[in-house]
Amino acid sequence: MTLSDTIRDIRLSKGLSQKQVSNGFLSQGNYSKFENETIEINASTFIGILNNLNIELEEFLYIKDGYRYSDKERIFRDFFRVPVNSQALLENLVLKCEIYLETNADSLVSLIKKISLFLIESIKSSDIYFNKEQAKDLLEEFSRKEHLYIKDLYLINSIFFLFPIESADLTMEYIDNTLKKYGDFQSINRLEVNLRMNYSLMLIKENLEENALQQINRTLPLVKKYKLSVQMGILYIRMGICHNNLKMSEETNYIEKGLAILAVLEENDILANMNKEINKYLQVE
Q1: Of 64, 99, 116, which closes a domain?
Q2: Could you read off the pLDDT of 192-227 as tens digits, one per residue?
Q3: So what's the pLDDT on residue 132?
Q4: Burial 206-222, CB ≥16 within 10 A → b, else e
Q5: CA–CA distance, 245 with 254 (Å, rounded to integer)
Q6: Are 86 and 192 in a shared domain?
Q7: By the 8 A CB rule, do 148 and 178 touch?
Q8: CATH number of the domain to which 263 belongs
Q9: Which of 84, 149, 158, 255 shows the greatest Cβ crowding within 10 Å of its Cβ?
């Protein structure tokens, strides 16, 4: 459907008149011409009409495309559903990117293709960290930008674990500046939780428990605020690992507390992974 067709259908389904929808942005006569596709409107007027319809731009585009995501958006979302160790699924995603890029010049899809190819090479080498220089090259794709946007942050989060720790430190500083700008926009806080959780594990792996603890302490208030129980369990376990390795005394056994939360939630796969994390990183004298 066209923009005008979609607007008209939404307006009629909501039982609104042309005057109600155009109020404050267009005369009723010009609005009627817009619906009939005899005039075009500017972006600010279009956003104003969406506000009068009480509908978000993302939902509007979803409806316009027949209640489905666009090809580009599906590629973006598929990228986050593909396990980083699945060569077949990653190769299929690369194929989708190539088909899309045949008719569309798009930097986001090009970057997704580049990251997917990197992950495929990592799988073939049996070492996800086999090429730190290429990981730095991926990072430069983002560092060249004057400003990071939401989709940039999602992409960084998906490959954050690939970065050498010195690069990850700089990336997190860059990310912090972006997070401050976005405040409480949409799901930015949940994304921040995931980024800091990934970063905390990277720091633990490098025996930088004090820095990891700082990230955990910054993340726990967000986790509690948004009632993210699984993430809370994971963070408590990592807090316990840090306390143990730093030889800090604990009034609460945070490892046991975190394991108990995951057990109650019946998150058995995550529970198994966290036990592996404990066995690998908890320093026992």
Answers
A1: 64
A2: 999 999 999 999 999 999 999 999 999 999 999 999
A3: 65
A4: eebbebbbbbbeebbeb
A5: 13
A6: no
A7: yes
A8: 1.25.40.10
A9: 255
